[in-house]
Amino acid sequence: MTLSLALLGLGLVAFAMLRRLFSLRRDAELASLENRLGTVRDRFESILARKRDLARELDDKERELATRRSNGEGIQTLPMFDLGTETIDENERVSRYLVSKGKITLEQSQKAFDKMGTLQMDYLAVCLTLGFIDLDTAKAVARAGKPAR
Amino acid sequence: MVDASTTYTLLVMAGFILVALLVVHHHHCSDAVRRRRGEVVAAERHYGEKITGLERQIDDLSEKLLVVEEQLAAMEETR
């Protein structure tokens, strides 16, 4: 009788220990999975916050740019004829103007001259096509190229 | 008073029951872990796709920001 009670007690203790072992292992694995999920979620949140910051910054700068444009700031349209370039042709004059204003580099200017024959366009259009200047700059330069009335 | 053979029979039956309970518990634990792992993998895939999209948007925004900053700098120079 004593032996059977001892065996029963031993069996119960073993049962409790094994059950506890399984539970602990399950909890550890679940915690590790939660950590994995938390890491990915944190990364997502940080990237989302970064995107919001960038969007806000871009919005501010675009607003500032629009304000400046509406205030008439930006490219000055007067000085092309002050460069002493009356004797050279139109394309060369535009090129010098753009280079002097820092809108394009000398290399870009040379490349635009090289491409003029291939593209069958004038210098300003080639610069615009090749992406050296934007449309606003091209318009401003075209305006600046017209003699003052 | 029960005799010895009955006692041992009862002991063996109790042993079987305990083993069965352990098997069921182990099965429940494994099942919970497997289900949660599936959920986490699905969530990781979901967030991964969103992160890829966001990173693309961030690249676009950075490029636009660069262009706007260049335009602002050009305006500063021509002032």
What does this structure look like?
The complex is a heterodimer of chains A (149) and B (79). Chain A is mainly alpha-helical and 149 residues long. Chain A folds into two domains: 74 residues; 67 residues, no CATH class. Chain A contains five helices and no strands. In chain A, helix 4 runs antiparallel to helix 5. Chain A is rod-shaped and about 120 Å long. The termini of chain A are far apart. By secondary structure, chain B is mainly α. Helix content of chain B is 95%, strand content 0%. Chain B contains one helix and no strands. The model of chain B has no long low-confidence stretch (mean pLDDT 92). Classes of the chains: A mainly alpha (149), B mainly alpha (79). Chains A and B meet through helix 1 of A and helix 1 of B.
What does the secondary structure layout of this molecule look like, with pairings?
The complex is a heterodimer of chains A (149) and B (79).
Chain A: H1 2-70, H2 90-100, H3 106-119, H4 123-129, H5 135-145
Chain B: H1 4-78
- Sum up the overall morphology of chain A in one term: rod-shaped
Fraction of residues in β-strands of chain B: under 5%
Structural class of chain B: mainly alpha
Number of strand segments of chain B = 0
Indicate the overall shape of chain B. Answer: rod-shaped
**Helical region count of chain A?**
5
Radius of gyration of chain A: 37 Å
SSE topology string of chain B: H
Low-confidence stretches of chain B are none
Distance between the termini of chain A: 124 Å
Alpha carbon gyration radius of chain B: 34 Å
- Portion of residues in helices of chain B? over 70%
In terms of structural class, how would the helical and strand content of chain A be classed? mainly alpha
Overall average residue pLDDT of chain B: 92
The main pleated sheet of chain A reads as: none
**How many domains make up the coordinates of chain A?**
2
Strand content of chain A: under 5%
Number of strands of chain A: 0
List low-confidence stretches of chain A. Answer: none
The termini of chain B sit apart by 111 Å
The major sheet of chain B is characterized as: none
